[in-house]
Amino acid sequence: WGTARHGGLFLSDNAPPLDLISIASDRPFSLPGPLARLGPTRATVFASDLGARQFFPHTLLLGYKVSVAPTPRIEFGVSVFEFTGGEGAPHATALKRIGHFLAFPVLPLKGFQFSNQMAGIDVRYTLPEHRGATAYWEMNVDDFDVRRFDGVLWRDDAAQLVGVRVPAVTADGRVGVTAEFHHTGTRFGRHLQFQSGATRDGVLLGDALGPDADGAYVFVDLDPGPRTHVSVAVAAEAYRADQYAITSQDPFVIRRLASRPQERRTRAVISWRRRSAEARAWFELQGGLERVTRFAFSDGPARTSGVV
User: Fold this and answer.
1) Phi-psi region of 37 (alpha: psi -120 to 50; beta: other; left: phi over 0)
2) Pick from 34-38, 111-115, 254-258: least confident
3) Are 4 and 180 contacting, i.e. CB atoms less than 8 angstroms apart?
4) Are 196 and 55 in contact (CB under 8 A)?
5) Widest pairwise Cα distance in the chain
6) What is the rounded distance in angstroms from the CA atom of residue 77 to the CA atom of residue 43?
7) Could you give the C-alpha distances from 182 to 31, 47, 71, 240, 275, in angstroms and in order?
8) Stated pTM of the model
9) Burial group, residue 307, by CB count within 10 angstroms (0-12, 13-18, 19+)
10) pLDDT digits (tens, 9 = 90+) for 29-54
11) Cα separation of 148 and 251, whole Å?
12) Contacts for 146 with CB less than 8 Å, ≥ 6 apart
């Protein structure tokens, strides 16, 4: 559900897999009529019960994604996600929920505020002549209002991800590099009614940054031998915990009430993996260090942590 190293902005490998019912195309297919010009197409739709620990127990997460490849170099994807239902959640008929899920971008807000919707787009561009290099971009929007364009696309509601992956930096293909930048807005993944946000059992479904943060990442992958893999990950992140208030609903206005120091984290993690000669098992060793300044958004002393 995403082109980045650890998945997408909304669904990633940060949380455990969802228990769900899914219908998906087994292989790319062609759309009918003039739409066939969009190229090979994939589609997925799913429904998942997020469990008893949601703010509204047993909230449903519904989602669908359609991806097309108009040329061998370019792939576009559009995705929609909806949190709806659950014990104590705003009521709506099944027909109204289905209509909202499929057509919410063109529906008025009034009368449809019984769920939380998120929508995403992603683009991937491949350069096979440059050793398979790929550039990718993803944006996920938690709300949309043309009257506050900058807030919707960057400051408040959206998350953005841009990256470049070169799987074969060297001629022998043993070294690969990936670089990414992630940004999340102040309200991304949060909601006034569905107060668990974009989580399951308290764990973020998507980008591990959470809302109101930035992260820059570099990953280096090395294959020194046929059964050995080494990876190095370096990260620099900034987290914000400023306080905001919604002062108007229509037009929507959000104002910052108080600023706090930004928590900053810098870390490096190295992993060594080796496959057994019989290819029956992998052995892995991992270690890392992280330096945190302004921990817990205070001006206290910096701290250093390690993991093995």
Assistant:
1) alpha
2) 111-115
3) yes
4) yes
5) 65
6) 10
7) 33, 27, 27, 14, 32
8) 0.88
9) exposed
10) 999 999 999 999 999 999 999 999 99
11) 9
12) 152
